[in-house]
Write the structure tokens for this entry.
Amino acid sequence: MLWLPFTQMAGFDAGARRFVRGEGNYLFDERGNRLLDAVSSIWTTLHGHCHPYIIECISKQAAKLDHSTLLGATNPAAEELAARLCLLANMHAAFFSGDGASAVEAALKMALQFWQNQGQSHRNRFVHLRDSYHGDTAGAMSVSDIELFKGRFTGLTFSSATYDGFAELRLDDVAAVIVEPIVQAAAGMRIVPSETYAKLPDMDALLIVDEIATGFGRTGTMFAHEQLGGLKPDLLVLGKGLSGGTVALSATLATSSVYESFLGDFSKQKHLFHGHSYAGNPIACAAALASLDIFERNDVLGHVATMSRETRDSSQRLAIRDDVTDVRGAGLMYAVQVDAARIAEGAGPPAAWRIAERLYERGFFTRPIGEAIQFVPPLSIEVKEIGAFFDALEQVLDELS
Ligand SMILES: Cc1ncc(COP(=O)(O)O)c(C=O)c1O
């Protein structure tokens, strides 16, 4: 049987949420319900589901070359995507993986080996932000800070330091500091105060910027760190929306100084000792290239700016409610934090999950993080859909409070 991630399988009714089709901003379940995908299938979908142009590019590529390894070989789609991403992000080289966590692992290992390659193996400590989340593999968990996700796996993780002041960065054994720019999505769309990033450019360590959740227009600019003037990643991690939300694909982008530290005579063994079977899969790369075409041809970022204002205005009217403790967000990454104590007690799951269930009945698919109800729609969301979501949320809160 199918085992779902982050899901209590006991009592899970698969038939209630079996998606069989996607079109535009909507998912369709087996029972014929049409659901607005208010979480972009966990922050992946950018231009809507089954975008005809992306599907066409995927099909063409699948018919030409389905897969060939990047271990000591290459393919045109991966090469073109690497070049376009580097141009877009002002980086030098792109290393491909599958899921976001794999690209974070690659970044951590690149950072360690970067220092080893210059005879500084003692620089092996990582520093992360408070409430960080970088994925569920061992290295990514180790630089994450959400106890609920990592606490039970301490046997697998290494210790890392939390960044909460300049003194921390004076340590002489730091390999890299890893940050999520502006929004910490898994912490419930927590907005990180911009001062937190101010001293990072002065640090004596590599800077890994994890844009897996925030990249590709989610916070209004192509990459969120563009809004944090002067913040220049040595390693930039991308995933989720990279393929437009269609196929698993992630990337770790490096500056020329990082990349060049891995060059040398074969016998010196300086090359990167890391890689995955499906790295740079041409079908996934074709999807990503198609998504970048859509950014270039349409004013996607202009649309996000308008939709972001609309989301801010629509969500703010909930902020005055007694059963809402906070409304926060940036771009198209929003969360409404409810006060569970004010939601009527009921049988079954906690308050936020019951809210999500009622939203589902009204045609909106979302998933709470703790007591935060997320609204992270596809970038192609429209004004009336935003209004409809917050109207529905207000009605549900009225019913349950
Ligand atoms: C900032 C950030 N980094 C890394 C990850 C892990 O990505 P994936 O779930 O694709 O492994 C996530 C996932 O939510 C994320 O939000």
